[in-house]
Amino acid sequence: MTQSWVTGANRADCDFPLSNLPYGVFEVSGRPPRCGIAIGDMILDLTELVTNGLLTGDDYGFDRPALNHFMAAGPKAWETVRNRVTDLLADGGSAELRENVALCRQALVPQATAQMHLPIEVKGYTDFYAGRQHAFNSGSILRGPENALTPNWSHMPIGYNGRASTVVVSGTPVRRPLGQTLPGGSATPVLGPSRRLDIEVEFGAIVGLPTELGQTLTVDEAWEHLFGFVLLNDWSARDIQRWEGQPLGPFQSKAFATSISPWVVTRAALEPCRHPAPLRDTELLPYLHENAPYFFDITLEAHLTPADTDRASRIVQTNTTHLTYSAPQLLAHHALSGCRMQSGDLLGSGTISGPERHNFGCLMEQSWGGRDEIALEHGGSRKFLEDGDSVTLTGWGMVNGQRIGFGRCEGQILPAPQQIGKAG
Amino acid sequence: MTQSWVTGANRADCDFPLSNLPYGVFEVSGRPPRCGIAIGDMILDLTELVTNGLLTGDDYGFDRPALNHFMAAGPKAWETVRNRVTDLLADGGSAELRENVALCRQALVPQATAQMHLPIEVKGYTDFYAGRQHAFNSGSILRGPENALTPNWSHMPIGYNGRASTVVVSGTPVRRPLGQTLPGGSATPVLGPSRRLDIEVEFGAIVGLPTELGQTLTVDEAWEHLFGFVLLNDWSARDIQRWEGQPLGPFQSKAFATSISPWVVTRAALEPCRHPAPLRDTELLPYLHENAPYFFDITLEAHLTPADTDRASRIVQTNTTHLTYSAPQLLAHHALSGCRMQSGDLLGSGTISGPERHNFGCLMEQSWGGRDEIALEHGGSRKFLEDGDSVTLTGWGMVNGQRIGFGRCEGQILPAPQQIGKAG
């Protein structure tokens, strides 16, 4: 495995070795937000490469505060840049950057000094429900195990449009939402802060290459349209969701915040983590057929840190292999109606739950609808989130003992507003 | 009522008198798309006013191909521009434009020569379900009259996130979508063109002034954030909707196209059309209380023209007074969770149906779930739309015998694609 000359990139516990090269948008003092690539402990400033003639050719818009322009350039462009940056950062590769000390000082920025922004302008956010265990668990809690899965679930990826305007980058605090809920035994709703605030551990796919209005995609074509992947925490207010959710689906219960990791790990980087489709109990319609393994083997974890401690307790351990529908299947189904797909569309997998309790990807499942306390390994317990709690998602694939990591996706819960409107 | 010196503006059948002044984005040969105001048969090019010093002060971005920048400037700016343009176009007002023949020729463009674009960059599209008759009718068709309304319906505006990327301007053809449907009596879905393609006659509200993440709004504050209104046709594939819609709500069945009128009629123009709230059978929670009449009295019609004729048959006649929740109530509820609202968010009212069959705002209701044929006044009948059908929405308020009109919102149905993917 090729090593990099950049500090930290070859450490076994590093998320960002030479074979990863995820994209993000960063800001350091004196430079407006712009696109960069994580390598070891550093960020490679792509605008500096362009300015200094080390990255030539098309204008990929790396000086913009979002990857959308570059993503729309398509797979050939993505490959060209990846190959060039790999060469510049590899031991034994081109010396143009490595041996230019002044440029290195300018173009390599310590991650510790950078503020990360949303990596993409999120054009549309669609959240699916593509993991069978989660669909079965949440259906069982709401409707009992015999009615857990609606009949459509086994035939297509069920999804809904989420709220794009409140997708936020890791580190953004999450204010507990106000909403209508129906107290147990009551026929009349009340207004107040959600009392059942939850996480959802998800895997987010990002559309790079857009489609035209009316254009459809095969699964194989959809694969080529995908640029990369992020960690995604779809914060959810279960009590608001329960009251509002019928007949049109979740709305304000999931509109207050959705956190994503600042680094977009590309499809190319995850190539060695590809994984075959799960056994399915239903034959899918031909438009959802897969001609290749389009799943990934990515370990996902969530840790919770209460406000009064700095010790993080692991609360979820799961894996993307528990999904039933792959990212290109989600995209092919999304485009089936002729729905225009945009560079910067974010497709959430839905909560990813494995077979055991500690593999369940949200607190509602782990506490089985709020029935059971979830013990935290460093003391205390939870059914749902409390004010001051921080939740951190991490994720990685393993390739020859090296992590292809996603960094962190975290958020801390702030108390709900005291009042409605300007006074609040 | 003040008259205008512009051709056609004072005709009784004109949608765009001096008291209207709706905003749109137009293109004529030789000029890039830009913002304008409809007056009579003409469009006032606001960039020409700015360039020639007739509209001074802040930069409202009228040379851009969307109103978002101007809308974000807020109610004071909207009032300033409206007052100035009224003065320039009124009989007896400022002569600066009227008596400058060369500038008139440059700044007043015949609507007949202009191509209209989407008036706004649609940031988010949220569709509600705010009319009781429609909610009751469609619930009755699906679940029977005793279960027609879910218990939450009377306590809050039920809505879902729609697909913003496929909101299109009037005149854009609408391709019949492919999708999964479940044939009657079958347990296995099939793929094919929707056979139950429908319209939904709606009233769209456009958010002008944005909110911050975590900010909530009272209904009175929400009113101030609303810039204007459009006609909206939420094309729907009922057979796809029926199969996909549970448990997460409509998705691909409404993702292929949503048409809006090119002209945004401002809140100021509709001031004389304000209407009190309907009697409700349920006391709303205080955050939804209204301190003023926030409804409008706007007549809405839909006409259908089959491919083999040019005679349009009126199929729907309804009115926005049939809504149960007002636009500022929709917005206040939308922001309740702290959801960030954006300049350019579009809020659909949901289908507006009145008490009689011909007042029902979609074909599913008029044909009662496809049971009855709907006779067309100029011959033929429909249960749902056929390829080649054109549907046109119109709408207007009446003030002292003068129309405050919305122009037209139309679309023609194209056949479904023959194949999936590039080959299709």
Automatic annotation (TrEMBL), chains A, B:
Domain Fumarylacetoacetase N-terminal: 20-119
Residue numbers binding Mg(2+): D234, K254, T258
Residues that, per the record, bind substrate: Y129, R143, Q241, T351
MF annotations from Gene Ontology: fumarylacetoacetase activity; metal ion binding
Keyword Hydrolase assigned: yes
Alphabetical GO biological process terms: homogentisate catabolic process; L-phenylalanine catabolic process; L-tyrosine catabolic process
Enzyme class of the recorded protein, top EC level: hydrolase
Keywords (A to Z) from UniProt: Calcium, Hydrolase, Magnesium, Metal-binding, Phenylalanine catabolism, Tyrosine catabolism
InterPro entries: Fumarylacetoacetase, Fumarylacetoacetase-like_C, Fumarylacetoacetase_C_sf, Fumarylacetoacetase_N, Fumarylacetoacetase_N_sf
Protein's UniProt name: fumarylacetoacetase
Name of the gene encoding the protein in the UniProt record: fahA
